[in-house]
Amino acid sequence: MRNGSIALAAAAALVGCTESQPCPRPLDVCDGVCVDTRQDVDYCGNCQTSCLPGQVCLDGGCLESTLAPCDERAGGAYVLLAACGQSVKAWAADPVFIETAEARVGLGPAAPYPVLDVRDGTDCDGQWTWHADPATVRFEAAPVGCAICPGDIEANKADWIGGVWCPDPVEFLLVERRP
């Protein structure tokens, strides 16, 4: 729950929210409890809809966690890597990629190399107007022809969107799991 939802839920508990005593706006009564159907995964959009495991509730609709706002994502990890003295924060859901990245933190450049499909638009790293496709992150032993600095992708974005980036050399700085 977001902080605003927590405050609303606490206020509703103090009011003694029931069917006869309505919840404060924007909360709804579901199963005798005040809930925020805009964000509650058990009551998403209405009292009868629950999100599936791995989904989040955003504005009353269930979404895969990779489409959720950065601070609400679950079922993956943020991977912070560095190439050419520049960092890139990417979201990854593939467990093998995450485990390999964790094993590489602090080891410096070495094979296997990350291979990231470049997509248009800022994701969770506000310094770039492009991001790595979280559904296709992977490692390869020796990728060819895709090593470039993150700033060069930014400067020549039209040439790289839809292409593949394989930073070499690359360092893994941090892996933050979000269960």
Average pLDDT for all residues: 84
Shape: elongated
Q: N-to-C SSE series?
A: HEEEEEEHEEEHHEE
Number of strands: 11
What is the total domain count?
Answer: 2
Q: How much strand content do the residues show?
A: 25-35%
- Rounded to the nearest angstrom, the radius of gyration is 21 Å
Report the uncertain regions: 1-16
Which structural class fits the helix and strand makeup? Answer: alpha+beta
Question: Count of DSSP helices?
Answer: 4
Helix content: 10-25%
- Biggest beta sheet attributes: 4 strands, antiparallel
**N-to-C CA distance:** 15 Å
Task: Explain this structure.
With 179 residues, the protein is of the alpha+beta class. It folds into two domains: 3-72, no CATH class; 76-178, no CATH class. Helix content is 18%, strand content 30%. The protein has four helices and eleven strands. The chain has helices at 3-15, 95-104, 150-155, 157-160, and strands at 28-30, 33-35, 55-58, 61-64, 76-83, 86-92, 113-120, 130-132, 138-140, 164-165, 171-178. Strands 7, 8, 9 and 10 form a four-stranded antiparallel sheet that branches. A hairpin with a 2-residue loop joins strand 3 (55-58) and strand 4 (61-64).
